[in-house]
């Protein structure tokens, strides 16, 4: 797919981190971009910085997602590219014994369910809306559109306390090929990036000693990933018409340790 001013794209979670880096890369190529994000302050700031438009969006809500797509399409036309970066998680052991009292506590199911809804269901919700819109378009160079989703190294190398996050991201990996198969007759490609440890704003707030240790744990190069490297792969997936149904790890060869 050609990445130029003729292309309209949507990036969820586009106000910071991997999403913002992708917005910047797309805008530098002349693409019309809509940023979907829950935070109005950072979303408006990102839009002002990049020349994109901001659409407030809660991926947990059908109504919010539908309204965001409607606003984006009114401004930029029907998107042919969707990059889903919205997500998050928590760190709670499955079952934990208090060291002092001996009390046993288990992972509340509602907190587990919230992570699945935010990542897996929220991603799927946006994919369905975008794909339905893409299906109304005529193909260009044989294709109507492309979806790039974001999983995590935790999908396969989940650490202690990451049961919910790992399950949620594994769900994104697991649905990649089935969705690609569902959409193949409509000339829409579906791919997933499985990033390792990246220097996103939440990670950069960690102590330097921790960041150094995390970087040293990467096979090579021994550092955290740069959000621009994620954006580079996302754009290549959009551009390369023969990439489909695949999940690609982007992690410097790291295999996460238990903790």
Automatic annotation (TrEMBL):
SUPFAM superfamilies per the UniProt record, alphabetical: NAD(P)-binding Rossmann-fold domains
GO MF annotation: an example: oxidoreductase activity
Keyword terms of this UniProt record: Oxidoreductase
This protein's record includes keyword Protein biosynthesis: no
Recorded superkingdom: Bacteria
Pfam families to which the protein is assigned, alphabetical: adh_short
PANTHER family, alphabetized: 17-BETA-HYDROXYSTEROID DEHYDROGENASE 14-RELATED, SHORT-CHAIN DEHYDROGENASE/REDUCTASE
Family, similarity comment: Belongs to the short-chain dehydrogenases/reductases (SDR) family.
Protein name in the entry: SDR family NAD(P)-dependent oxidoreductase
Source organism per UniProt: Stakelama tenebrarum
Lineage: Bacteria, Pseudomonadati, Pseudomonadota, Alphaproteobacteria, Sphingomonadales
């Amino acid at each position: 797919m050609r990445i130029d001013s003729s292309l309209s794209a949507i990036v969820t979670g586009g106000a910071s981190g991997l999403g913002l880096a992708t917005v910047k890369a797309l805008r530098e190529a002349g693409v019309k971009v809509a940023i979907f994000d829950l935070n109005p302050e950072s979303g408006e700031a990102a839009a002002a910085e990049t020349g994109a438009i901001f659409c407030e969006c809660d991926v947990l809500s059908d109504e919010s997602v539908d309204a965001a797509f409607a606003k984006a399409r009114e401004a930029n036309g029907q998107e042919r590219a969707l990059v889903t970066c919205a997500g998050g998680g928590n760190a709670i052991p499955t079952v934990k014994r208090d060291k002092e009292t001996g009390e046993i506590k288990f992972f509340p199911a509602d907190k587990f369910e919230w992570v699945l809804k935010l990542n897996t269901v929220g991603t799927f919700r946006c994919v369905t809306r975008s794909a339905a819109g893409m299906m109304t378009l005529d193909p260009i160079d044989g294709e109507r559109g492309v979806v790039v989703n974001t999983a995590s190294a935790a999908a396969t190398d989940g650490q202690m306390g990451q049961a919910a996050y790992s399950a949620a991201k594994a769900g994104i990996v697991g649905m990649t090929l089935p969705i690609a198969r569902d959409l193949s007759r409509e000339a829409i490609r579906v791919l997933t990036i499985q990033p390792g440890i990246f220097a996103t704003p939440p990670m950069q707030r960690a102590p330097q000693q921790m960041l150094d240790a995390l970087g040293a744990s990467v096979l090579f190069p021994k550092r955290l990933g740069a959000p621009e490297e994620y954006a580079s792969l996302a754009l290549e997936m959009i551009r390369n018409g023969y990439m489909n149904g695949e999940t690609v790890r982007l992690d410097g060869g790291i295999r996460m340790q238990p903790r």
